[in-house]
Design goal:
By secondary structure, this protein is mostly helical. It contains 8 helices and no strands. Helix 3 (about 55-65) runs antiparallel to helix 4 and helix 3 packs antiparallel against helix 8. The radius of gyration is 29 Å and the shape is elongated.
Length: about 190
């Protein structure tokens, strides 16, 4: 009897670990493909945003306005607060502040500084010597005031422009999406006949 029970039960063998490859070749993608995939994702997220185009465009304008100021770390908060005040889309406002990022800080703020100098009629270039921290502190107001004037002027113009361009872009994307949906339904309808 004991022998029969042993024969009916399979012997216990420890599980053998399967060899897994270190890298899955299907998951490795070229950088160009991943950029294209990211842009495709952003396109579909924009098309499928809920709400009317006006609040979305206001959120875009508020985010770009906040993104053009040199408040590092506070740009997103400022963009969301402006979106609350102007009743814009807060998610779009937070995303639009990335118009200024570590790759675009220097060109944006150099341009804003020169615009501020032109608006304040300061045509002489400020010589900044980084040899002494005291010299930089003394020139602080000479640099910051034209920078903030230029930031305000450029951000105002760009945010108004981005509001109207955002309205047109959102309408265009949604209309093209609806048109594609109609074409797909028509093809499906005619293929079933």
């Amino acid at each position: 009897m004991f022998r029969r029970s042993l024969q009916s039960c399979p012997p216990y063998l420890p599980a053998v670990a399967k060899k897994t490859p270190l890298r899955n070749p299907n998951k490795i993608k070229a950088p160009r493909q991943s950029i294209r995939r990211g842009l495709n994702y952003l396109y579909w997220r924009t098309v499928r945003l809920q709400g009317r185009p006006e609040p979305i465009a206001r959120g875009l304008a508020c985010g770009i306005f906040a993104g053009l100021f040199p408040f590092f770390g506070l740009q997103t908060l400022l963009g969301v607060l402006l979106a609350v005040v102007f009743r814009g889309n807060k998610i779009v406002a937070a995303a639009a502040t990335w118009v200024s990022n570590p790759f675009t800080y220097i060109p944006i703020y150099a341009f804003n500084f020169h615009v501020g100098q032109m608006l304040l009629n300061q045509h002489e270039l400020t010589n900044v010597s980084l040899q002494s921290w005291e010299e930089v502190k003394e020139l602080g107001t000479e640099i910051l005031f034209p920078l903030f004037v230029g930031c305000f002027a450029v951000a105002s113009v760009v945010s108004i422009f981005s509001y109207f361009m955002g309205l047109r872009l959102i309408d265009h994307l949604r209309n093209s999406y609806k048109l594609r949906q109609r074409r797909r339904l028509m093809r499906k309808h005619y293929s079933e006949r």
